[in-house]
Design goal:
Elements lengths: L5 E7 L6 H10 L23 H13 L12 H6 L1 H16 L4 E5 L7 H10 L2 E9 L2 H12 L3 H18 L5 E5 H6 L1 H11 L11 H8 L11 H6 L5 H11 L8 H15 L7 H136 L1
Parallel strand pairs: 1-2, 1-3, 3-4
Length: 418
């Protein structure tokens, strides 16, 4: 049945033990993966299925605790408590960013084994019910794998394996959990996911339709490049008793229950591992010296990086001041520009008004001139007509006078003649 309570599957186990493939099984079965997945690398071409921001935070947390992913030494409680607040604040933020409001998530990063107690407490505080899927692989196979990938001595790789599996088992005792082996994962992934769902008391529905092929396809034979048998571990006289015994107990777990006697044995081995000096031979001492030298170099690099970051922050602060000054100047320019634009617009409007009024006046003047011209032409035409009439009248009068003069002349001549 489905459940509204938030559940978080924590895939726990040593590097190179099948944690990526197991995480993929939970993804296929319905759990939510993180948003920002680590990029595929040559060491795991099928994908890691873990959150890059979470891995980065864990590396930083280990570094602050003077440790690293390939360190078999226990993290001191005092040291981890010192940086617990740093880890908790950042883990909560990343948890929200990577998973949002999902109520059924899966988290995978083998580094968690080293500080699983702190991670579990944060998950509970964030409303999740932590459920641990613990996978175990033959330590020689694991050691050979990281020897090939990271050039880590075989004995050192076995001790790193021991640190991860012991811490993972110890810190998960108070939570629902399920145990599987790498062999079980590669031989029957469908059965593995079914048994884990029950053993871990997962309440969310499991996707089952058409899932068998997807599960089988996700666990490819190419996952396994190194083979060792249980007898090989027990027969290797160079391996300490606590390594073979730890593997023997974890492989023999039934129904995800470890007997109190076996828990006591594991606690004894874990206590011995915490007193590592008596277990160090010349090869491990050489590697330990190399790790200490590497850590010192990392500290120096961190300090240089810190100084560079501080210098960069100072430069960025100056750039920010310059940027704000430039923004202020640009803002002032924009204000002045807007003011000038408004002034130009006002002048343009005034010019247009003047031109409009001038055009009106010119039109009126032209109309008046045209009217005066028309009236003048009309007067001239009228006077011309009157003059013509006067000329005609005068001509007629001249004719009459001429006729009268002629008549008088004729009469005068006639009188004279007479």
């Amino acid at each position: 049945m489905s459940n509204s309570k938030k559940e978080c599957v924590v895939v726990s186990g040593m590097h190179r033990s099948g944690t990526s493939a197991l995480t993929r099984l939970f993804d296929i079965s319905g759990a939510s993966l993180p948003k920002t997945l680590m990029k595929e690398l040559s060491g795991n071409p099928n994908g890691h299925w873990e959150s890059q921001p979470i891995v980065d935070l864990h590396d930083d947390f280990l570094f602050k605790n003077e440790s690293s992913w390939d360190d078999w030494r226990a993290i001191k409680d005092g040291s981890s408590n010192k940086f617990k607040s740093f880890y908790a604040t950042n883990f909560r933020k990343i948890l929200s960013q990577e998973y949002g409001y999902s109520k059924f998530i899966v988290i995978k990063d083998p580094r968690i084994c080293r500080f699983q107690k702190i991670t579990s407490q944060i998950l509970v505080e964030e409303g999740y019910s932590p459920k641990f899927a613990i996978i175990t692989r033959n330590p020689i196979e694991v050691a050979r794998s990281i020897e090939k990938r990271n050039n880590i001595p075989l004995k050192a790789g076995i001790l790193i394996w021991l640190r991860h599996v012991l811490d993972s088992e110890f810190y998960s005792r108070n939570y629902p959990r399920g145990f599987i082996t790498f062999d079980q994962l590669t031989s029957n992934p469908n059965q593995v996911i079914q048994s884990l769902w029950t053993d871990m008391e997962i309440n969310h529905n499991r996707i089952t339709k058409g899932i068998t092929k997807k599960l089988n396809d996700s666990v490819l034979p190419s996952l396994r490049n190194h083979y060792s048998t249980n007898d090989e571990i027990l027969a290797d006289d160079e391996l300490e008793w606590w390594v073979s015994k730890t593997y023997e107990i974890l492989v023999a777990v039934r129904n995800s229950k470890i007997t109190e006697s076996d828990k006591g044995t594991l606690d004894k081995i874990r206590a011995e591992l915490n007193s590592i000096p008596k277990l160090v031979n010349s090869a491990l001492l050489s590697y330990s010296t190399h790790k200490n030298s590497e850590f010192s170099e990392n500290i120096q690099l961190k300090e240089r990086l810190s100084k560079l970051q501080e210098s960069m922050r100072a430069n960025l602060a100056e750039i920010e001041i310059d940027r704000k000054s430039l923004i202020s100047k640009v803002s002032s320019f924009e204000v002045e520009n807007k003011r000038n634009i408004r002034t130009i617009e006002t002048l343009q409007m005034a010019r247009e008004n003047i031109l409009r009024k001038t055009n009106i006046n010119v039109t009126k003047l032209e109309d008046e001139i045209q009217k005066n011209q028309d009236e003048h032409l009309e007067t001239i035409q009228k006077h011309k007509i009157e003059l013509d009439d006067l000329n005609k009248s005068n001509m007629k009068r001249v004719e009459i006078l001429e006729d009268e003069i002629q008549k008088n002349q004729d009469e005068h001549l006639e009188t004279i003649q007479k």
